[in-house]
């Protein structure tokens, strides 16, 4: 889950390319503003096990930063 905490009327995402790869997808929500903490997207991943898929999704989401 991409869950930043910031104040902005113009949210932008950085490092998206670092969060993508084989078996990884991002769903970035079209929310243009944030005041405090807000869920702005999720990362989805595949893996050979559930644990591997979860670890890959968490790492992908952690690579994204929201700026404003």
Describe it for me?
With 68 residues, this protein is α+β, with helices and mostly antiparallel strands. It is 26% helix and 35% strand. It has a two-stranded antiparallel ribbon with strand order 1-4. Strands 2-6 form a two-stranded antiparallel ribbon. A two-stranded antiparallel ribbon has the order 3-5. The longest helix has 14 residues. It is elongated, with a radius of gyration of 12 Å. The model has no long low-confidence stretch (mean pLDDT 95).
Nearest-angstrom radius of gyration? 12 Å
Q: Strand portion, in percent?
A: 35-45%
- Choose one word for the global shape: elongated
Output the structural class.
alpha+beta
Low-confidence stretches: none
Q: Number of DSSP strands?
A: 6
Termini separation = 18 Å
Helix and strand sequence: EEHEEEHE
Give the biggest beta sheet: 2 strands, antiparallel
Query: Quick check: average pLDDT?
Result: 95
Helix content: 25-40%
| Strand order, sheet with most strands | 1-4
The DSSP helix count reads 2
Descriptive tags:
elongated; two-stranded antiparallel sheet; 68 residues; 2 helices; alpha+beta
């Amino acid at each position: 889950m991409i869950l930043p905490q910031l104040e902005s009327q113009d949210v932008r995402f950085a490092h998206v390319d670092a969060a993508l790869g084989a078996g990884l997808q991002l769903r970035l929500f079209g929310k243009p503003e944030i005041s405090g903490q807000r869920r702005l997207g999720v990362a989805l991943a595949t893996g050979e096990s559930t644990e591997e898929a979860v670890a890959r999704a968490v790492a992908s989401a952690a690579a994204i930063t929201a700026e404003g």
